[in-house]
Amino acid sequence: MRAELACLASLLLLGGCGSGSGGPAEGQRPGVVLIIVDTLRADAILDPADTCATPGIDSLAADGVAFTRSFSHAPMTLPSHTALFSSRPPFETRVLNNWQTVRQDLPLLAEWLEEFGYDTRAVVSLGTLEAHSGQGLDRGFDDYDVDFWNMDEAPRVVERLRTTLDELDANRPFFLFAHFTDPHAPYNAHGTVERTAELLLDGELVETVKTTSLNHWWHDVELTAGRHVFEVRASHQIRIRALQCFRGKQKLDLTWEEGELMGACNQAVVAFEAEQAGTYQIRAWVNDSIGKKESQSRYVKEVEFVDGFIGQLVDELKRRGLYDSSLVIFTSDHGEALGERKVVGHVQNLHDEMLHVPLIVKPPAGPDSRRVTEALTRRSGSLVTHSDLVPTILELTGIPPLPDQRGVSLLVDKNRLLIAETHKPESKRSFVCLRDDRFKMILDPDEGTYTMFDLEADPREETDVFEARQSERPEWAGQLEAIARIVTQGGNLEDERDPETLERLKALGYL
Question: In what order do the strands lie in the sheet with 119-123?
Fold first, then answer.
């Protein structure tokens, strides 16, 4: 399997070297700011009809270079981020689902930058990127801020980023990973509609909460020993994303008498036993259940909302004198289906609505900035992948390549080939695909079936041309089968995560 993997790496990902132009000398290395907006479709930014008003992101693009054909390696948060931070596809990182361990021998960007003197900081906002004591993407970060429950919204993320910037070591170059969850589901209504649900304990109304916006509700209650019942009632369809009861750090077992986690309902009822009288804490997260049309309109509002806070972060960097001298990269981990193929969400397939992501690169100011901008501009209409970001960052900071990186610096004029994957159990089916400028081929390993699309004639991927056109990419089927074998032989497709992790995945819309 090791030889097969090495062969695939060289065949498919074309090796990762710089342009040979060199970077800044040590001591003059620029700051690096990596901004990732979770679940942001490329067409939310690139749409010529300006469906989404994004002046903050547009301003950043005006200062740098926007790539129109940038693609993720996975429509799932942790596998995609791991591929980006390691410059390797998921079948090689072994991170195929959320909340898996990032293996210790996998080189990561933050760890590499830290070794070369960088002050490495991260502020993340989604549970699937939480720290795992060096077992996740937190490895290599001097500080990895995960001060949130399940997900955090842009206003608070920017406040946490300001605190992080306050703590930077002025004597070292810095790397800042700024992660925004908006517009990940559930999509907030942002004032377009308001719906509420009642929360009751033992038949008494405790509070009324909005279901059209993020409502992480925590409440301390005094309980007698014995059985208690907590209810959620609404006049519209709701989904209970999380419901927990604690005494101190002890989590109580809940019995669902009506409804279930993430099931659409108008009422949910859970019972639990308090072993002794005292103070208990109940946590609930409830959102309304909406259809495709409302999902589409709310998604636009979410993109416009987060855009304002991207602008605030850029303004903060400028105010501190960090913006011009820094390399700033803006992208998303994956896209989002908004009704295409009757899907709303991500994970479930490898079509472009889930893989096509925005990418903006603003080079640092300096004597080479014009040359770098010109080189990036020449590549801006070509197919590029997340694997290319680490090589680009390292070239522009004058740091040697990450060991065994698979991508190619964006300054290099070379054709790319995208490998993308999604895997069970979070996806209902596993798929692997290859994509170049003209074609995409997708393998369903369980069924042994292929689909193929002529992206030039059929950009919406509606007509399968595998039988008629497979001969135009004769090596792809065998390469996809090899990737699938590597995943099966060395991967972890069985769900061994603990019940609490599975519960949190459900809260975030997975499984």
Answer: 143-145, 119-123, 174-180, 32-37, 327-331, 356-362, 65-71, 384-385
Q: Is the pTM of this model over 0.85?
A: yes
- 256 lies in which domain range? 196-288
CB 417 within 8 A of CB 13: yes
Alpha-carbon distance 384 to 359, whole Å?
9
Q: How far apart are CA 250 and CA 188, in angstroms?
A: 31
Same domain? For 140 and 279 the reply is no
Within 10 angstroms of residue 400's Cβ, the number of other Cβ atoms is: 12
Give the list of residues 6+ apart from residue 328 with CB closer than 8 angstroms, or none. Answer: 33, 35, 60, 63, 64, 314, 317, 360, 361, 362
Report how far Cα 34 is from the mean position of its chain's Cα atoms. 13
Phi, psi of 246 (to 5 degrees): -125, 150
Can you read off the two tokens belonging to residue 135? 């077992």
CATH number at residue 136: 3.40.720.10
Count: domains in the chain: 3
Question: In which residue ranges of the chain is pLDDT below 70?
Answer: 1-27, 133, 490-498, 500-511
**The predicted structure's pLDDT at residue 18:** 44
Measured from the Cβ of residue 201, the count of other Cβ atoms closer than 10 Å reads: 17
pLDDT of 273 reads 96
Q: What tokens appear for 228 in the block?
A: 């208690």
Q: Give the list of residues 6+ apart from residue 334 with CB closer than 8 angstroms, or none.
A: 39, 72, 74, 75, 76, 77, 80, 346, 354, 355, 357
Smallest CA-to-CA distance from 130 within 144, 115, 143, 110 is with: 144
At 449, which helix (H) or strand (E)? strand 449-454
Residues 491, 350 within the same domain: no
Q: In a 3-state reduction of DSSP, which class is residue 410?
A: coil
pLDDT of the residue at 20: 43
H helix intervals, 182-328: 292-319
Cα–Cα distance measured from residue 376 to residue 64, given in angstroms and rounded to the nearest whole number: 9
Residue type, 426: E
